[in-house]
Amino acid sequence: MSTTSHHQSSPGEAPWKSTFLAHVSKLPSPEFVIATLHEAPSSSPTPLVPRLRYCLFRGMWAQITENKHNQAPQNERIYESDLPTLTTDVRMLKIGELFGSSDGHASDEKQTQGSGGGGAVEAVWWIKEEATQWRMKGEAFVVAPDIEGEGEQSSGVRTVKSKVGARMRKVKEGDWSWGKELTAHFGNVRPEIRGSFRNPAPGTPVAKVHPDENHWLGQKVEDLHDPVARENFRVVIITPEEVEQLYLGDPGKSRRWKYTYVAASEDDGEDKGQGKWEKEELWP
After folding, report:
1. Which residues, at least 6 apart from 248, have a Cβ–Cβ distance to it below 8 Å?
2. pLDDT tens digits for 205-221?
3. Burial, 156: exposed, middle or buried (Cβ in 10 Å; 0-12, 13-18, 19+)?
4. Beta bridge partners of 35
5. pLDDT attached to residue 6
6. Burial of 150 (0-12, 13-18, 19+ CB in 10 A)
7. What sign has the CA pseudo-torsion 265, 271, 272, 275?
8. Which residues lie closer than 8 Å to 32 by C-beta, 6 or more apart?
9. pLDDT tens digits for 33-73?
10. pTM for the predicted model, two decimal places
11. Portion of the chain with pLDDT greater than 70, in percent
12. CA dihedral (132, 126, 240, 160) positive or negative
C-alpha cells in the first residue's frame, strides 16, 4: 500500500477543531458556502473575481464521516487532520478555478484532470443553533484517481501529497492508502449522488449537449468502481491557514476569535518541523 508523504510539520489537534465539529453536528445538513477565484472578463478592472456555491461538508481528511451504508474498504485511523473535505465533479468550474488560481496557474483543461490545484478559497458555515459563524481561509487541493498508480507521479500528485501530507498527524503505525481514502469517500455518498457523476456535463447547454448511453439524469450507481462516475468524481481538501469563530447570540456578549496557522521554520529549535496555531481574540 502507498503511504502518505508526511513531514511531521503538523501540530497537535487544532484548538478550534472539537468546537467546530460539535457545532457542525447540529446542522440538519452540513452545508457551507465556499468561494473560489475565477478569471475575470477582459473588461474587468481586476484579474480575478469570486465565485460562490453551497457544498456539503464531508468530514476531515483521513477521518471520513462514519456511514453504516458505506460498503467501500476503508483505511484504519492511521492519520488525523484538521482539513475539511467536500466532494465534487471534475467537470464543474470550481476545479479549473482551484488549478487556475494556484501557484502553478494551470489553465489547460488537460492539466486540471488529475490531482493538484492549491488555489485560494474561503469557506463559511452558519450554525444557527449556536448563533456562530465559522470562516476558514486557505488553499484547496484536488484528489483524483491518479493519486495512486503505476509509473512516475505527476507534479500535481506530488503537490497534493506534500502539501496535504504535511498537515496530517500520524496517530499510530500502519499502512494508509490515498486511493483507498478516495474510494471510501465515493462509497460514503448515496447511490443517487454517485449517479450524478454520470449526468451530462454540468453547466453545458441542454440544446447542444444531449444525454447518451453513459450520461443521463436520475441514475443510481452501486458499483464503487463505476468507470464513468469515478472518472468524474473528486475529493477537495481545504488546508486552512486562518479560522475565525464569531459568536453573535447576545449583542452584549458577542465574541470573536481568530486562529492562525504558523508553519514550521528553520529557526524553531527543538520544535523544528512542528507548525502551530496562534489564537487571538478580536472585537466582534
Report:
1. 131, 132, 133, 254, 284
2. 999 999 999 999 999 99
3. buried
4. 52, 122
5. 47
6. exposed
7. negative
8. 54, 55, 56, 57, 123, 124, 125
9. 999 999 999 999 999 999 999 999 999 999 998 899 999 99
10. 0.93
11. 93
12. positive
CA dihedral 214, 188, 35, 200 (to 10 degrees): 10
Return d(Cα 211, Cα 111) in angstroms, integer.
26
DSSP for 173-242, please give it.
-S---HHHHHHHHHHTS-HHHHHHTTSSPTTS-TTT----SS--TT-----TT-HHHHHHEEEEEEEEEE
pLDDT in tens, 120-143: 999 999 999 999 999 999 999 999
Place of cell 447547454: 205
Averaged pLDDT score across all residues of the chain: 93
Report the C-alpha gap between 238 and 137 in whole angstroms: 9
* Structure-derived torsion over alpha carbons of residues 119, 6, 33, 259, reported in degrees to the nearest 10: -100
How is residue 87 written as a grid cell? 466532494
Give the Cα separation of 23 and 27 in Å (integer): 7
**Which amino acid appears at position 103 of this protein?**
D
120: exposed, middle or buried (Cβ count in 10 Å: 0-12, 13-18, 19+): middle
Give the position of cell 454520470.
198
Q: Which residues in 2-58 belong to E strands, given as ranges? A: 31-39, 48-56
Separation between Cα atoms, residue 279 and residue 257, nearest integer Å: 7
